[in-house]
Amino acid sequence: MRLTQGTFSFLPDLSDDQIYKQVQYAIDNGWAVSLEYTDDPHPRNTYWEIWNRPMFDNPDAQALIEELKEARAQFPNYYIRIVAFDNSHGWEAPRLSFIAHRPPEEPGFRLERMEGPQRRQHFSLQPYASAKPTGQRYKSAK
Fold first, then answer.
1. Within 10 A of 80 (CB to CB), how many other CB atoms are there?
2. CA 115, 118, 119: angle at the middle one, nearest 5?
3. CA angle, residues 80, 128, 134, in degrees to nearest 5
4. Which of 29, 44, 117, 137 allows an S-S link to 129, with CB 3.0 to 4.6 Å?
5. Distance between CA atoms of 60 and 12, rounded to whole angstroms?
6. Mean pLDDT, the chain, as a whole number?
7. What is the mean pLDDT of residues 96-110?
8. What pTM does this model have?
9. Strand duo 121-127 + 32-38: pairing
10. Using alpha carbons only, what angle is made at residue 100 by residues 95 and 103, rounded to the nearest 5 degrees?
11. Taking the alpha carbons of 20, 22, 26, 32 in that order, is the dihedral positive or negative?
12. Beta-sheet pairing, 49-55 with 121-127
């Protein structure tokens, strides 16, 4: 199952050249860019780990691409996304976010049904990956 999140979720994975162009677009708009990673890709898990500090005054996307290469080398079995944050007054929120790296095998999610008071049915999505402890969720995870 291919996990989709973010701006380009309906497209195939972007190449490094396409990622570079999107990051440069964000920088040209004055947005700070950063990398985040996780091994728990649940759609409600919005707080991913931050890779280094956000790049606020970086004029060239190549610096982020180099950071992305380092993150891929260190966490080959994690999800890595790029976030472009707009700190303009009145906005102060991410403008762009997309997955730039994913593990080779994505186990997907299972739907769990729970019965509540008055026979109400509640459903929740549980990633198969989160059944294992952090750091051991994918094959050969570091």
1. 23
2. 35
3. 55
4. 137
5. 25
6. 88
7. 88
8. 0.81
9. unpaired
10. 140
11. negative
12. unpaired
